[in-house]
From TrEMBL:
CDD domains registered for this protein in UniProt: NAT_SF
Chain ranges of the N-acetyltransferase domain: 1-136
EC number: 2.3.1.-
Keywords: Acyltransferase, Transferase
Keyword Isomerase carried by entry: no
Annotated signal sequence range: none
Name of the protein in its database record: Putative enzyme
InterPro entries named among the record's database cross-references: Acyl_CoA_acyltransferase, Bact_Acetyltransf, GNAT_dom
Primary enzyme class: transferase
PROSITE patterns registered for this protein in UniProt: GNAT
Key word Transferase present: yes
GO molecular function per UniProt: acyltransferase activity, transferring groups other than amino-acyl groups
Length: 136
């Protein structure tokens, strides 16, 4: 497995991965929308995991100078529990820390207990916060 920055040639593989990992995501989270937006802002914080040349995982990170964020952490189902997700999160953490980031946030659907447990195993904790959002 290799982890590296996203390249334009990875688009189809990431799109297929996200369709598998996030089948019910809203239109604004789909690859056609989210990837160009990420490439316009901090593209160096978008990583893919490859097995040979096949995309098997992804993570997008961001840093606003105050907090870092992880999103679109995805692993092909056939590769789950093989260390891909952990390696991607650790690479994003490394890149964020190099920018001076000392706190990372992420959001997980409340019903996705398996993913909550994955992050807990990596040292993340559920914080007593309410997540608010607004579509513009």
């Amino acid at each position: 497995m290799e982890i590296r920055r996203y390249a334009a040639s990875d688009f189809d593989g990431v799109k297929t991965l996200w369709e598998e990992a996030f089948p019910n995501d809203p239109p604004w989270n789909r690859a056609e929308v989210a990837i160009p937006a990420k490439l316009a802002f901090q593209p160096e914080l978008f990583f893919v995991a490859l097995d040979d040349s096949a995309v098997i995982g992804s993570v997008m990170a961001g840093y606003d100078g105050h907090r870092g964020w992880l999103c679109s952490v995805a692993v092909r189902q056939a590769c789950e529990r093989g260390g891909v997700g952990t390696a991607l999160v650790r690479e994003a953490e490394r890149a964020l820390h190099a920018l001076g980031c000392e706190k990372i946030n992420l959001q997980v659907r409340a019903t996705n207990e398996a993913v909550v447990q994955f992050y807990r195993a990596l040292g993340y904790a559920v914080e007593e916060r309410i997540s608010l959002g607004r579509r513009l």
